[in-house]
Amino acid sequence: MYELIKRDGRAKRGRFHTVHGVIETPVFMNVGTIAAIKGAVSTADLEEIGTQVELSNTYHLHVRPGDQVVKKLGGLHKFMAWDKPILTDSGGFQVFSLAGLRKIKEEGVYFNSHIDGRKIFMGPEESMQIQSNLASTIAMAFDECPSSVAERKYMQASVERTTRWLARCKEEMARLNSLDDTINKHQMLFGINQGGVYEDIRIEHAQQIAEMDLDGYAVGGLAVGETHEEMYRILDAVVPCLPVAKPTYLMGVGTPANILEAVDRGVDFFDCVYPSRNGRHGHVYTKHGKLNLFNAKFELDERPIEEGCQCPACRRYSRAYIRHLLKAKEMLGMRLCVLHNLYYYNHLMEDIRGAIEEGRYAQFKKETLAKMEEKED
């Protein structure tokens, strides 16, 4: 159940009640594709840095170790020793991005595993079954994620098929949640809005799926090649067509600036690989933008990554030391950068929630974006 606590313009401050605990929104979900955050980050670390939701990938876990294996081990929460909410994406995006050879049919998609080449079929029912075996808190509907610049005729047909697939997902999830051997009988389902950069297709699709009374709604197929301005234009058009009394999730986005802009347009949920991927390459986020710790100017810099930051890296280590670790290819350097970045994102969301509650989000956004444009001394 989603509880809307405060609106400040279009920005929403909410509370999403789940079987695995309450999610305070807006929220950034920390991406652990194969049930682990890349960069040697444990679930104990996630608790320490203020993570509310962990996100894992249906396709990857189906391929390895296998969703049946995870089910036999008690589900994803038990498997990875994490008792807070988990969202699993449907596998649709990976099927379309990783599988070079694939056939899309009404029943689903035929493709080859990117690991061992074996033939796999995945449709709405299979995606729901895999996610039920994983026993995540929130399951995503199986959709096609076409290129955002696909031609109009293809996009229209694709979105219509995604709508039919969503109805099948909803029906299958209801069936699975009623079975005796289902681990999480309260699994929630989010539908996904598609339509590329075609506003009218997006709006019509949003209106159709809004009528299906799902637990939440995602906007998919953005941040895949279109400009930021196009993305914001689509959000301006689509978010008002989705139920305000349900969470809205912008998939795979993004930079701190993207998040600030999307919150302003009514988005509640975010996920992105940026903080962990950039951290593994020595790029760290601060209130004054991003730093590359490989730069020679940090060789003798005794300051933490960010003054005043309470993350495990900043409480103890200097930029100079972390730079040394990175240059020496020592895994600890990568780990400290990832921990800092995830802490930064989690606590940016905390600040966003506070600003909305206090009715000063517009000013907060303006000041935060201006600081990011500054360069530190």
UniProtKB/TrEMBL annotation:
Keyword set includes Glycosyltransferase: yes
Domain tRNA-guanine(15) transglycosylase-like: 10-373
Record: active site: 89, 271
Database matches in PANTHER family: QUEUINE TRNA-RIBOSYLTRANSFERASE
InterPro entries reported in the protein's UniProt record: ArchSynthase1/Queuine_TRR, TGT, TGT-like_sf, tRNA_ribo_trans-like
Gene behind this protein: tgt
EC number(s) recorded for this UniProt protein: 2.4.2.29
GO cellular component terms, semicolon-separated: cytosol
Tagged with keyword Ribonucleoprotein: no
Binding-site residues, substrate: 89-93, 143, 194, 221
GO biological process: tRNA queuosine(34) biosynthetic process
Enzymatic reactions: 7-aminomethyl-7-carbaguanine + guanosine(34) in tRNA = 7-aminomethyl-7-carbaguanosine(34) in tRNA + guanine
Segments for region (RNA binding): 252-258
Self-association state and partner proteins as the record states: Homodimer. Within each dimer, one monomer is responsible for RNA recognition and catalysis, while the other monomer binds to the replacement base PreQ1.
Source lineage: Bacteria, Bacillati, Bacillota, Clostridia, Lachnospirales
Family of the protein in this entry: Belongs to the queuine tRNA-ribosyltransferase family.
Binding site for Zn(2+): 309, 311, 314, 340
HAMAP family listed in its UniProt record: Q_tRNA_Tgt
GO molecular function (one): tRNA-guanosine(34) queuine transglycosylase activity
Record keywords, A-Z: Glycosyltransferase, Metal-binding, Queuosine biosynthesis, Transferase, tRNA processing, Zinc
Identification of the protein by name: Queuine tRNA-ribosyltransferase
Major enzyme class: transferase
Chain's role: Catalyzes the base-exchange of a guanine (G) residue with the queuine precursor 7-aminomethyl-7-deazaguanine (PreQ1) at position 34 (anticodon wobble position) in tRNAs with GU(N) anticodons (tRNA-Asp, -Asn, -His and -Tyr). Catalysis occurs through a double-displacement mechanism. The nucleophile active site attacks the C1' of nucleotide 34 to detach the guanine base from the RNA, forming a covalent enzyme-RNA intermediate. The proton acceptor active site deprotonates the incoming PreQ1, allowing a nucleophilic attack on the C1' of the ribose to form the product.
Entries under NCBIfam families matching the protein: Q_tRNA_tgt, tgt_general
Cofactor(s) essential for the protein: Zn(2+)
